[in-house]
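Hi R.,

Here are the chain sequences for the assembly we discussed:
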Amino acid sequence: MAAALAAAATLAACGGTAGGTGGGSEAVVTVSVRLFEWGIEIDGQTVDKSGKVELPAGKVAFEVKNTGMHVHEFEVKGGSLDAKTADVQPGQEATLTVDLAPGSYEVWCPLPGHRESGMDGVVTVR
Ligand SMILES: [Cu+2]
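And here is the predicted structure of the full complex:
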């Protein structure tokens, strides 16, 4: 357990801008994702099938970190969206930027057997 849990610098962009006129909403919200055996955490919350983990609609950059000992990937699917990272080696990170509409999204690790082992859940986008 020597892994220094480098504080995941979550640039929580507190979207305080009230209804900007004209400009597109291009703010990207950064969300930290942790992959491990056997589960997925989003901003420190364990993802399960309940959908209790919520994300904001709009552009979201998933900063995916593999803190496990196996290769993992992160996939998110809902509505017309289906996106995933490439392999993330142990200790490595990858960023997956997507545009989320409100709704329910599945998140999981698509590597064989990993989803069944617990790397599986649902997030709710509002
Ligand atoms: Cu995996």
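Residues 28-125 form a domain with the Immunoglobulin-like fold (CATH 2.60.40.420). The beta strands are 28-36, 39-42, 45-46, 53-55, 58-66, 75-78, 81-84, 93-100, 103-108, 120-125.

Let me know if anything looks off.

Best,
T.
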